[in-house]
Amino acid sequence: MLAYGPERGWTDAEKMMMQRANFATTHLGPQIFRTEVAVVVGSAIVAGRCGWLEDGFIQRRTRLLQQADHPLGCS
Description:
Layout: H1 12-20, H2 35-49, H3 54-67
């Protein structure tokens, strides 16, 4: 489960609540994202770190290159 904070940041009470719920904390860097962008960025980072993007991407790419008459070929 991911929790995205408001642009103003988390209040002390919200931080305590998440600590009690055993959330691990991190941030997306010094920039401030709009909520809808932060959700996409954070989800992509998690998916990439978990390997959910690379394996699927490589498999789909390989399949597409094998099916197409691609100038680079595919092994």
